[in-house]
Structures are given as structure tokens and as C-alpha cells.
Design goal:
By secondary structure, this protein is an alpha/beta fold. 42% of the residues lie in helices and 22% in strands. The chain has a seven-stranded mixed sheet, sandwiched between helices.
Length: 224
Amino acid sequence: MIEATQLQRAKADWRERAFDLTRGIAAYVRNPLVGGLARVIAKHPDADIATAFNHKQVACKMWARDSLLESYGGQFGRIWVLGGWYGVLPAMLFDDARFDIGGIDSIDIDPDVAAIAETLNVAAGNRFRALTADMYTLDYAAGRPDLVINTSCEHIKDIRRWLNSLPEGTRVLLQSNNYFSEPSHINCVDSLDAFQGMAQLRNVRFAGELPTKNYTRFMLIGTV
């Protein structure tokens, strides 16, 4: 009982220190994204924000952001981010002055992540929405997003079936990896060529890979 109480106090102390640290950094650099991280730590103590914003996650999203800019420029009306989790990629896109984005919808099947994503992106106001939905049931033809982002293709059983639900000509940014040892990764690919063969995009603006310590991440940007 004493050990459990000490553990709870240690966790509370860590959250308080992390909140003070990120809030101080946000004030120093005047950065709304860091301020959003501070608010998540304070309001959602059980959120795994340390994993969502670790160096590998950030590196992969920076790679996506920079490659997107090179491929299609920075102006978008509305972007849909599927499997958006805590909304880190939208926050990074809103934080980048090179982009002019009308709005971003972060869409995830897990209803518990929407409130966290909204907290992280509160500075974006009504330009950001966190929605709970299954990507297979979305009406892409009616929504007509300028860009659909899915950085979790390794979690999708049938990528081609999902891509077939998008109107022809829809711009997409897709990421997958070869991290086969992760149980939740049900559809990894072993190479960039394999990923391209699986996606079968009509037009490819970018195809590349980003090696990390335990796996390689693959990315495609183009149209279905």
C-alpha cells in the first residue's frame, strides 16, 4: 500500500514538473505547439504523450511535412488525417509558417483520443476538429478533402480496398514500415517497392524511406 502511494506521488510529481517545464519552454519560445503539450500533460495525465511526441515520431512527421511541402506546396483547404491519434501531425502542420491550411480533421476510431487531440490543437481554434470514425465508412466523395494523410498503413488489413473508396485524383500521403515484430502491425511491407505495389497510386510525386534504429519507414505522396 505504501509503495502504491509512493508511486502515485512520484507520477503526480513528474506530471507537475513536466507541465512546468513545457509551459516554461512555451513561454520562452512563444510556441503554441509546446503550449499544447503542456496543456495535455495537465489535463490528460494518462495520455501517452511521451510516446506520441518521442524523437522517432517527430522525425517521421517532420519528414512527412517537409516532403509534402516539396511535393504539393503549402496551401490546402482541408486535410483529413486518418488514424490521427493525439493530433500531433496537425499540430506540427499548423505550427509551420510555410503552410496555409484552412482546416484539418484528425480522424480516429478510438473515441478516447479526441479530447486529447483537441487540447493539443486548441490554438488552431475552429480550424481543427477531432472526429471519431472508421476510415472505411467515411464518405470521401462528399467530404472532398484536398489531401488525405494516413501514416499508419501497417495497421490496415487491406490498403487497396481502403484506397478504392477514395475518389480518383484524391491526393494522399501514406506511410508504412517493416516493423514486423510489433503485434499491432498487421500489414507491414519489407521494401519501398512492395509498398508502391500495394498502394498502386496513379501518380507518385514522392517515394522514399527513412531508416530508424529498429525499422525503416516508407512514404508515398501522390494521387489515387
